[in-house]
Amino acid sequence: MQNSLEESTVEYLDRSGALQKLIQDCRTRAEIESRQDKPSAVFRFVMTVDPVDLVNFDSTLGNLVLHYPLDAGRIFQDVVYLSIKALDLIPQVESRNQILVHLSIPTLPSLPSYSLSLRDLSCQAVEQRYFQFEGIVSSMTNVIQYTQSARYQCPESGCVGSEPYTYIRLHTAGARESRTIRPDFECHYCGNILEEDVSCRVLADKRVVKMMDPAAIPGLSWSPGEEGIPTIDRCRGNITMSIEANSIFKHVVQPSPSVALPDSVARLHQDRLGSPYSFAASLAFAFASSVSPPGTYHKLKLSMLLSLVSTHPNDKTKEAKDGGGLHVMAVGSDTLLLSRLLTYCTAMSSRCVHHTVDKHLFAKVTKDTHGTGTCSIDAGSLLLSHGGCCFLGDLGQMKKDVQSSLQGVMEKDAVTVQIPKKYGDSGVLQSLELPISCSVWAYTDPNTCKKPAAIAAVDLYLQQELGNVSKTLADCFSLVCYMDGTSETGDIYAESLLVEDILNSAMLEEEDVENVGELLSTEDIKQFLQVACWLQPQLTPTAEYLIQGYFVSSRRLRSNNIQSCPFPPTALRTLTAVACAHAKLSLRTYVAEEDALMSIYLFEESVTSRYGYSILGIQPTPHFRHGNIVQYLGKENDTQMEHFHLQLLRLISSHAQDLTIRQPEE
Description:
- By secondary structure, this protein is α/β, with parallel strands linked by helices.
- It is elongated and about 100 Å long.
- 34% of the residues are buried.
């Protein structure tokens, strides 16, 4: 049986090309050994074995690799040793104990028995074989070293155990350090305690990673996948399980061909084809109607939809363009409704972390509990939200030092982790930067401001307060939506709509089917967002010209005007991101002029709400009346946007004459 398995192994290696690679590696190692003064004690070889291909070639050998990997490793070890001796590839190899073979398993059969669920994990029922599982990396240690191989000798010169390569301890999958290095190994022949030749010890790098079940944060399918062998340790009544990863890969989410545009959204999109703005505005009108009636908090709902479609499961492209997500902060006195509205949006996101005070926001460095002697870096809410969104709650309730740290993180799009000297190999303070790529959502109450009246009087052009949130932190958010309008009539009307909606829901529980806001169900909007998120619209030259022209004109005009107000330098990136998001929300494959106009309109409205005047004559309208719906969803809105377009072109021609429309290359 042993000989037949070895013959099958040789034939498989020859058939897959691994045998020829082994011969080349051995010749390279032999050339290196010839230039060294002291020969190596152990020779390590990595062999890639596809279990599915191996099962088709020899079912017995394939079953051995899948279900008894340690025994299979010894078969491959014998084959490699015999091949080296038969072909005289490495003269320094005298014993099979000198051969360390690592079988790299790229994939496992797609069957339930080979998948390990962290939720249903039972240490007593886990076999010591290869499993495949997914999880979210929640913490990891520094790179530390472990002993890959060690050589021992018997101190008795006349004993067989005193031969150079009789006792070589090799690391096996899942084994602790004590199984390779220990001071009490005994000689099998005479019983003496073995002595280690420290000069022959071979070290390798490893990292201890903690993973959590993907169900803890729904939709995080981007998390790394692993294949490895579990090992169970029992110590003082506690049972722990560690899995040594054989292969680690990042699961790339692919668009599902089965997800199509819902019929209700498709009909709405077809009905709004005549207007470049009405489809996105209609979605915002219909969005979250169970939280607040259609028409109320309209601009906040539109901003949240833009933020939702800006997130992408595979965020490499987004990181290269924007570096982060589309951050939204809502400012209003009705924080209960704002909290409910943003919480509703978290349910629409495919991945979202709701930050609470009992969690750490950035990253936490603690001592590793696995006896490695190094530190463990625990991911905070921002890092766990990678590729999704992070809901911070009431930003004004955060401590000032946390707000200051958050500002630094949002400015750099990275979390800086300081590793203490005691955990570093060089004994110096180490710094590690971990990039973040998520949309940050928050709200605040402007009436909680603790600013003295004398200081508040100096801010002549600050029409709306930010509560306990600093201005510099607010500048880090892409869109700041003020819900308390300057018109008391609009606020009273919105409040009356909310009261009426609550009373109707409590007493009548009837739905108005003619209302656009009731035509789209929650599932329809979720399905639409899944489709829209995968769009990758390209920025057109005309849209780029409008965005750059508005940015340059605003920087020049607002800095020189007597009523100057800060215009954030990150506005260009924000305007581009909002325009791309509006194109995705409108189901376009390119960023049109209309998308750039809406991006500029929303940004100018946010600046106007905050600083009290607009260079384009925009009047902020956080809510609108049902009777004026055509002004926001119909042809009147298109006409208003055309006038806004002309005003913008006049502004650019007056203050950014040096800009021209970039012509695409042929």
